[in-house]
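User: For documentation purposes, I need each entry recorded in a consistent format: the amino acid sequence on its own, followed directly by the corresponding structure tokens. There are two entries in this batch. Please keep commentary to a minimum and don't merge the entries.

Assistant: Recorded as requested. Entry 1:
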Amino acid sequence: MRHIFTAVAAGAAFALVCALALAPASAQSGSPASATRAAPAGWAYDLAGDMMSPFCPGRTLADCPSPQADSLRMWILVQESAGRSRQDVEAELLERYGDVILAAPRAEGFGIAAYAIPLLAFVAGGGLIVWLLRRFTARSAAADAKAQIAVAAREPALDAELERIVEEELARQG
């Protein structure tokens, strides 16, 4: 029984690690700095929050404090006010800075590994947990069967002894 709890604890630890590994990806989309700003109606502010900064690794363009990021945000605002579409500006930024500016890798080519590896790790971890649970429960079931056989072998002697004790107690009380 102790092995089952160990396997369940290992499974819970694996689930916690998976959740923590996925947390940074979801935290980037709703950064606190961009949530506190009053967002105007245009797409330029959204684009700055959706793109990663080429000047501050690990930060969105909206959260990067560098002067280069300020000028790039201003350039995006100017492009929006000039009437360019968001797709055109994104394409130009991708051409200028490459895939580094994307918040998530493209789901094509080598970028698909960023989506496939965590999924495969999750499935493999689940399979490992199922295998461990089956293995430990099979061992405990075999041990229980051996214990029941041993008790059954001693049972007639125990029954006779218990019956004698009960008879003595009844004779003393009655």
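Entry 2:
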Amino acid sequence: MKFDHHSQLSWAFQKSLHPKISMKKKKIQLAKSIFEHSIAIRDIVNEYMDIAKIASGAQAQLNLSPIDPKVFLNRFINSITRKKNKFIKLGNDSITAIAQEKDLPKVLIDQSKIKCVLQNILSNSTKYSASDKPITISIDSVFLDGRSFVKIDIIDNGCGIQPEELSEVFKPYWRSKHNSLNTQGDGLGLSISKNIMEAHGGMIRIESKVNIETKVSIFLPTTI
């Protein structure tokens, strides 16, 4: 069951603004602030509940809407570079974004879920790369098996993944046995990401060369 007290909060907020109820301006502003923050908290709680269900093996439930993929990606990058993010540790100018000048078809996605996928991928990229090595994000349109996708690549120059482990990376709780870095994590990020991408009718793929480069690609179905 979703955590939803929007209707009750909305009623209380509207009642507080009724002309028969005398309230000073500061009290009205405070009521509005409490209302807005409560809605934000509700959304965060619902998002964590959804991710917990996916981690337990449940199919991802999606709230799909069409959006320009360049607009979506730009908003995501801005959201992680303009404020501190406890999952993604970024140095100065550590992300390079590359987008084709051509127009891209819109994608039909659950924006919060795809943000989760991108955050999982970037979290790994930043954990397994030196702070002075940039991360590149690129976006383009592709056709695979007669279907139209928008592909987002995230490329880092970190320690990479051993060839024999590439077939294991999407399994729940997988952690590399060859990684010498002391990194924290539960090994669920890529498993959750795969579940979300498949629920969209999309894909996630990984290519890696040890100590050279790792590229994670997600394929988002378009509206055409």
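Summary note for entry 2:
The two ends are 34 Å apart (CA to CA).
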